[in-house]
Amino acid sequence: MYLVSFLCHDFVVAVSFVACILGLALLWNNKQQNDEAEITEQILFRMSFSYWLVYCVAFGIEKIALPHWEAIHMTLRITTALSYFLTFSCIVSLPLHKFAVRHVQE
C-alpha cells in the first residue's frame, strides 16, 4: 500500500513539473501592461509556478541522488520544504491581493 501511494506521488510531481513549464510558457508575454494590479498578479502567478518547478526539480534530484551523499540529501530536503512554503505563500497572496485591489477601488 505504501509503495502505491509513493509511486502515485512521484507521478503527480512529474505531471506537475510539465504543467509548471506549460504554465510559465503561457504566462510569458511581451506586451506591456499599464495596470499595476495586473502586473502584480502576473508576477505572483509566475512566482507560484517557478517555486513549484524548483520543488519538482529538487524532489526529482533527491530521488536520483546516491544514498551515501547525506549532505546533498539534507540540502535537497531543505530546498523542497522552502519551495513548498514559498509556493503556498504565493497562492495565498493571490486572493489577498485581489481583495486589496477591490477594496481600494471601492
Can you give a write-up of this model?
This protein is mainly alpha-helical and 106 residues long. 86% of the residues lie in helices and 0% in strands. The protein has three helices and no strands. α1 (2-27) packs antiparallel against α2 (36-64) and α2 (36-64) packs antiparallel against α3 (70-105). The protein is elongated. The model has no long low-confidence stretch (mean pLDDT 87).
Biggest sheet statistics: none
The number of helical runs is 3
Rg, alpha carbons: 17 Å
Which class do the helix and strand fractions yield?
mainly alpha
Shape: elongated
Q: End-to-end distance, in Å?
A: 53 Å
Runs with pLDDT <50, length 5+? none
| Range of strand content | under 5%
What's the count of strands?
0
Would you tell me the overall average pLDDT?
87
User: What are the secondary-structure elements, in order, as H or E?
Assistant: HHH
Fraction of residues in helices?
A: over 70%
Short description:
The chain is mainly α and 106 residues long.
Keywords summarizing the entry:
106 residues, mainly alpha, 0% strand, elongated
Protein topology:
Blueprint: H1 2-27, H2 36-64, H3 70-105
Helix pairs in contact: 1-2, 2-3
